[in-house]
Amino acid sequence: ILPAVEPGFQPGGKNTGNTKRIESSSATASASANPGGRMPPSTAGKMPAATYHELRRAWKSGDIIDLDLQMNTELIESNPLVEETLGQVAVKRGPVVYCLESVDLPKGVKPLDVTLSANTKLRARYDQRLLGGAVVLEGTAHARTNANWSGQLYRELKPVKPTPIKLRLIPYSLWANRGVSEMSVWLPLNRSDE
Hints:
It is a single chain. This protein is mainly β and 194 residues long. The chain has strands at residues 2-3, 19-24, 28-33, 42-48, 51-56, 64-69, 73-76, 88-93, 96-101, 114-117, 122-127, 134-143, 163-171, 183-184, 187-190. The protein is built from no helices and 15 strands. It starts with a strand and ends with a strand.
C-alpha cells in the first residue's frame, strides 16, 4: 500500500485530474485507490509487465494506492553480448533483485564459487532479524571451491566436484549492512543438469 502523495499537492487547492503513474515490472499486477475506503475506489485493473498505468482521479490528502504485485521468483539472464554476465544468472522476486553476500556462506566459500542451476528451487521467507525485517530467498546451491590460486594467473583445468550448500539471498538494497563482505548479483549457471 502506497500513500498517494503528489509532489506539489496542496490540501484545499485545485487538485482535480491528477494522475498517478505506476510501473508494472511483475508478470501481472493490479492497482486501486482507496480500496474499501471512505471514497469510491478507482482502479487500473490488470497491468501487463513492462507497462505504465494511470489512476486518474481528484486526489485528496490521505488517499491510498493499493498495488498488488505478483511476486514470483525468477532467474534472469542477460543478452549474450554482455560479456561480463555471460553464463550467469541473477535472481529476482517480483520487482526486487536479490544478491548473495559472503556473510551467508560457509567459511572458505566466496560468492563467485556458488553456482545455480535452472532447476534451483528458492523459497521466500520473511526474516524479522534481517535489518528490521525483509524477505529472503533460501534453497540449495553448489559451491566449487578451487583451492589455492596464489601466484597463478592460469593453470591446467582440474575437475572439481561441487559441494551442496545452503543458499540464502537477500534483497540487493540491503547488502553491506552486516560488516565487511563480498557480494554478487550475477552467479554462474550450472547447465549440466538441464
